[in-house]
Amino acid sequence: MKKFLFILLITLCGIKVSAQQDAQFSQYMFNGLYINPAYAGYHEAWNVHAFYRNQWSSFPGAPKTFSVAADGNLKNERVGLGIQVMNDKLGASNNTSLYGTYAYRFPVNEEGDHRLSIGISAGFVQQHMDLSKLSPTSTALDPVLVNGRKDAMLPDARVGIYYNTEKWFAGFSANNLFTHAFQKSDALKEYLPLKPHLYFTLGGIFPVSEQLKLKPSLLVKEDMAGPTSIDINAMGLIQEKLWVGISYRSAYLKRNNLQDGLQQPSAMVFMADFIVSEKLRIGYAYDKTINSTVANNAPTNEISLGYYFRHKDGRVISPKYF
After folding, report:
1. Residue 207: strand, helix, or coil
2. Cβ(193)–Cβ(183) below 8 Å
3. Which residues pair with 216 in a beta bridge?
4. Half-sphere exposure of 164 (CA within 13 A, CB side)
5. Beta strand pairing status for 79-90 and 212-222?
6. Is the domain defined by 2-308 classed in CATH 3.40.1650.10?
7. pLDDT mean across residues, the chain
8. Is the pTM of the predicted complex or chain greater than 0.90?
9. In the structure, how many helices (H) and strands (E) does the chain have?
């Protein structure tokens, strides 16, 4: 078991590679705060959103991620505030992060339905590596790993920009801006390096009938070191009550520092999000890896729960599709 966890750790994170990938969610399109601080306040109502992701659940030590985020806006609806806490476990590694977010949202047309938002998050990342989950007799254990620091608390910041109308949206954000600069030259930096990640999102909403709306979208994730990840999503909203859709995720391996012969990883994601009421929504996603011999038969399950608070003045929470 311990040897398996070590193999899993170095396989998924990579020994002496250029960066550790950010924690991944499939239902990020239901709360963009997870990838872009400029999203804070978009719903124009205070809300709390929770995710739990159990990746490759048949493998012991495979990634497990839990996160809770809350955001809303002040009375003038131009200032968005948010907070997010996340815990991400992978084999012997355990990362916890906490961020506070500020976003300024301003209209760019007279009607006020075109908005540009600029956001920033500040917080910290707590890294921990538990060598008790690895085999102490394994010859694969590097002295740097054994003798190096196993815990670190690193300050961090995120920035983003988000533009939306009633019909489409686009966003760009950068995460992990400071963590790499504060990582010391030890086991954590050698085995679990944190480098900036760039995110680009684009999508729109297209009414087909009174009962059906379609929402195609795109996410590109780039860390300038490992594979470039691309999600192509197609969601449908049925009678303003049920989102159902599919996503295709692929990674492009055009990097000089990656070993030859790696398969291009890809996955299909099937998801649904049920709007129980004006206040409550429940989501589920199932990821199926397509061409990885390791994870083809290992399911990934993800659940989400969102709760929206009523306006104090009694206003109805208007539908937000992005």
Report:
1. strand
2. yes
3. 234
4. 21
5. unpaired
6. no
7. 85
8. no
9. 4, 15
